User: What shape does this take?
Amino acid sequence: MYGACVSVYIGKGCIALCIENMQRVQELSPIELVEMFVAVFCFLKDSSEVSQVLLDDFRAANGYIFLTEFLLKFVSFGLLQSVYLNHLK
Assistant: This one.
């Protein structure tokens, strides 16, 4: 990812807005949330080659806490595997 593209997102609150939307939208299925996390992490991985700021934004938006709570919720209910297996059908 080029530095100019990353600089567009820095300071705009895009990461915080994304995390907020992921938490707020009730109509999302668990697999849709997983796919959103994957997309966000791919973006953060690529952007981290240019700047760590978006990773800091993710942390500041409590993205890691949201991810942890999401995973613990589904692991504790044993749903993560069944959601994944249902998605493959």
